[in-house]
Amino acid sequence: MQSNRRDFLKLTGGVSLLAATSGTVLAGCGGSDGSGTAAKAAAKATPPEYVAYGSVKPDLPGTADGVMPGFFKYPRQLVDGYQDKPGAGAGDVKILTNMFNPAPPGAGSNTYWKALNDRVGANLDITMTPTADYVSKLSTVIAGGDLPDILMIASKFPNRGEMLTKLCADLTAHLSGAAIKDYQFLANLPTDSWLPTMYKGGIHAIPIARSVIGTIMFSRADLLEARSLNPEPASYADFVETAKGLTDAKANKWAFGASKGVTTFIGNMLGVPNVWKEDGGKFVSELEVPERKEAVARTAELVKVGVFHPDALGGKLQLRDLFGNGTIALNADGYAAWDLMADTYGVDVGGMPVPAYDGGKPVQREGAAIFALTAFKKAGDDRVKQLLRICDWLAAPLGTSEYMFRRFGVEGIHYTWKGDKPERTSAGKTQVSLPLEYVADAPHVLGPSNEQRVRTQRAYQEKIVPNLLANPGAGLYSATAISKADELDKLINAAELDIVSGRKPISSWDDAVANWKRRGGDKIRDEYSNQ
User: CA nearest 356: which of 237, 258, 461, 276?
Assistant: First the structure.
């Protein structure tokens, strides 16, 4: 979505950085970034203007309220976004980012990496760290006092705001308002994704954007059709009947394999807030509203009805595999899983819109607008502009030659065309796995995929986008929310599991919420309310 929820987010970061960074590193980095430009920036930054990139035309255009554009196939006629090398003159550019896949061959033996450096016009020296170890690695690098030129800041990194404002380049003058137009692909990122980059009156990072479509209740559309069941229940009662119709214990067929997503889905029917709601400047947690408690109670009832896999409450099921082989027919997952599951298992996947519980209006919780942030080491204007141009190049969207190279490499070496699809060669499979999408990335799109699937995904989004509900805490910063996230999540998850499994009555929910408030929930509320 391109709407700006707040005129300005003065995110303070709250307290000092990690203990590892609270000494000489911060003491020596609190002054000017050396550029002169940051000091001239307005005291109150505005989010970068959104300027859609218009040189590539999707088969199904996106909408201003959040429906993603769709492509039926990869464009063969590519647009060149850059006529020059974006990093020309930058020399060595050190980058720190995370990765999910095995590391590719090093630059010395990787033809893709060599071609990347040639196209960018700089030597990209990329340090890749497995995601499970990334926060620890980032903390160590910060404590050492020698930041790389470009570094990914994990969304749950403690005291992110203070780290960005004291250690990293102020990008306000380069990106605030209309200034973003110097970077055509960064300007193509939705406004909501920029909000978490803004602290203490300035812009201190660029976003790695994600769609706000969020979590989807995926359905095995083929199984629903085979049993003549309604793929779009009109009420909670209809939803229960659909779940019963998908369940056949003797055949090891069940509606659900996990309770958490079901509780959230029922909560959406009831209009439960998206994590927080704001009322007159005061934040109220979703946990405190009666509808949230009711959603837990209704999930417990469904467990008793017998529509959950018998091992659903153990938390060890491979849900995607069970969904793919038809053991379960409904599963809540992130929006990107639609293509993944359809392609992996060769099944007909659908998305179930949230119905109203019994009249009223349901909500669809917006997902996080970012995966992470990318920040730069403090440097002079020319250096910062070079780094921004490199990231702008990396953020080129589908339909550009830059995107095609970043995703697939050099045609004939790293991929060939098989009909309308690019297919990686053996060299491509090995070499084209640099985690560049965690440095900078284009907005996500629907497809490219077969037309029917893309149209089905599009139709689903058109139904749920009008009901999208924002989290008013998104883009705000709470040190407590980050440092205690795991502890507080475990507390609530355990309480929910005790209730839905029948070990404790629904009345125990009130005690769990009171405990959550004492152990950090109230402090998070205060930190949000004071911004």
Answer: 237
Q: Are 256 and 262 in contact (CB under 8 A)?
A: yes
* Other C-beta atoms lying within 10 Å of the C-beta of residue 173: 20
- Per DSSP, the three-state class of 301 is helix
**Size of the chain in residues:** 531
- Is the Cβ–Cβ distance between 161 and 128 less than 8 Å? no
* 123 or 360, which is more confident: 123
Block residue for tokens 């995370």: 98
With tokens 């009345």, the residue in question is: 507
Residue 196 reports pLDDT greater than 80: yes
Q: What's the pLDDT band for 45 if we cut at 50, 70, 90? A: confident
First vs last C-alpha separation in the chain: 22
Q: What are phi and psi of 213, to 5 degrees?
A: -60, -35
Per-residue DSSP letter, 109? G
| Residues 296-317, mean pLDDT to the nearest whole number | 95
Q: Spell out the residues 6+ positions from residue 155 whose beta carbon is closer than 8 angstroms to its own.
A: 196, 368, 370, 371, 372, 373
CB 202 within 8 A of CB 165: yes
H-helix or E-strand spanning residue 339: helix 337-345
Indicate whether 42 pLDDT > 50: no
Residue 199 pLDDT > 80:
yes
User: Which distant-in-sequence residues (6+ apart) come within 8 Å of 151 by Cβ?
Assistant: 95, 96, 97, 138, 141, 374, 375, 376, 377
With CA atoms as reference, report the closest residue to 149 among 465, 374, 424: 374
Exposed, middle or buried, 57 (CB in 10 Å: 0-12/13-18/19+)?
exposed
Q: What is the DSSP letter of 191?
A: H
Output the CA–CA distances (angstroms, integers) from residue 159 to 15, 73, 128, 135, in the order listed. Answer: 7, 42, 22, 12
**pTM across the whole model:** 0.88
Cis peptide before 448 (omega within 30 of 0): yes
Q: What percent of the chain has pLDDT over 70?
A: 92
Residue 112 has pLDDT above 80, yes or no: yes
Helices (H), 93-171: 111-120, 134-144, 160-167
* pLDDT over 50 (residue 178): yes
SS3 call for 101: coil
- Read off the pLDDT band of 162 (50, 70, 90): confident
CA distance linking residue 489 with residue 176, whole number of Å: 35
- Three-state secondary structure readout of 477-501: CCHHHHHCHHHHHHHHHHHHHHHHC
